[in-house]
Amino acid sequence: VGLGKLASEQGDQDLAIRHWSRVAMTAEDVRERQLADLEAARAAYAAGRAADVNAHLDRARSAPLDDITAIQLDTVEAETLLWIEHQTAQGAEAAQRAVARGRELAAPAGGIGGLPPGTRAALMAALGAASDQRLSVRAKRQGVHRRQVAVGSRD
Fold this sequence. Notes:
Radius of gyration: 16 Å
Largest sheet: none
Strand content: under 5%
Shape: globular
Number of helices: 8
Structural class: mainly alpha
Helix content: over 70%
């Protein structure tokens, strides 16, 4: 697990994908396999490899999900659809699924601040993806690419 995290942090997405894929295929625990597929999907997203993202998301979703993992998977799906595949409507749907599930968890906790840190982080990432959807729509209208949006290009 440490190698996958290190590879991701150092930007070696190919190594991260290979490592997390190996963990996802060999781990005995279903939850460990799901989390490895989530990390492999994140690395594939960072590498711009939508087909790999989707394969890992599908594999992670093949077993029952807890709410936090479902939010995280929907968030990666949304980001991939929005920024790699440029499918704005489908990306918006995935982002809204993640946000809706997060809000369901936040309501009984008295809001986002009442959530445990991991759940709060998952919901904040989902909200970020929903915000990205709005940026994607605006960028598409203006012919701007994500890198320009993220860096804040100047006209």
